[in-house]
Amino acid sequence: MSRRVRGTAMRPKAWFQLLTHTLAVLVGVVVTVIGFHALPSQADPLDQVVANSPVALTGSNRPTASNFVVAAVQKVGPAVVRIDTERTVSLNIDPFFDDPFFRRFFGEFNIPRERTERGQGSGFIIDKNGTIITNAHVVEGAQRVTVTLTDGRRLPARVRGTDEVTDLAVLKLENPPSNLPVAPLGDSSKLQVGDWAIAVGNPLGLDNTVTLGIISNLRRSSSEVGIPDKRLNFIQTDAAINPGNSGGPLLNANGEVIGINTAIRAGAEGIGFAIPVDLAKSIAPILAEGKTVPHPYIGVTMSTLTPELARQINSDPNSLMQVPEINGVIIRQVLPRSPAAEAGLRRGDVIVEVEGQKVTKAEDLQRIVEQSQVGQRLQMRIRRGDQTLSLNVRTGDRKQVLGRQN
User: Fold this and answer.
1) Which domain holds residue 227?
2) Domain match, 352 and 368 both
């Protein structure tokens, strides 16, 4: 009787099923790998903002910006310059050293009669002709000005004009090279508290320094900052602004100039101030032509008056005046031969209204005067003791009025 011998060989159908499953697994692996590489990366939201930002740089030799700060600096940084100034000042030598008797016994002394003072600040180029904006105090009294570009080129420049009231100055490169980088100017009227602020400059002699912060305040008056001789409403920022940063640009997140770094409040950390770029845009063309910027002026020293302050003044037995217990602007001093003096304003007068606008703070009066024209008559309503008076004050030019005081 014959017997069937069981073999271990697989049937053709089993081989086909095994091959089919193996191919399915391989296809799945390949599809997974391709799909992983094809999926968009989970980028940091800041990188996505940069990719869609108008500041993002394409088609250049620079590496791709990793965030909006890098993009803004790459866009504006080449237009930021270092400004070195020199001036020669005469030294006051004691006449004793020129006395013949002294020279007879002690011989000749080689005492220097002059010394060279050097200063440094920042600025930025605003056109292809080599026009530069900076602070007036950076180039004050300068006899020689040298501008250093970020690529190391050193170029001579001339001071075209300065305005000490706004602390702005315009320089012009004497032989501007072609293809100068230019900083785009933004719109400071659109700023909001909390916007990004990027300060660029050369603080403490450290070239090409960048700091980051936010806009902390938009209308910080010069009197609040501690600079009463200026007539400005500063942009306040917590971006670090150090000596040498003066004149450099304050940028927004789009890499546009929104202010000119100018001041640091003594004794305060994390507080810096910048001149709004809109003011610079209105003044720079005048300075570039070598002209003087007119500033309406009435010639008074003033303070904000509140009912509480008025009561303190009135209750002081040594007070020289009694003032109405109201909100307004009290006159502390009237300059001789000034528009205010000619109109009849006196110390102790309280201004409550100008040109139909109520004034409750000194900044209100300063703003109205600054926005007027030289020679314009301003109608003021004042309180003098128990009387209410109306006076017309014709504004004068600040420089001319102060010139009469000498």
Assistant:
1) 188-288
2) yes
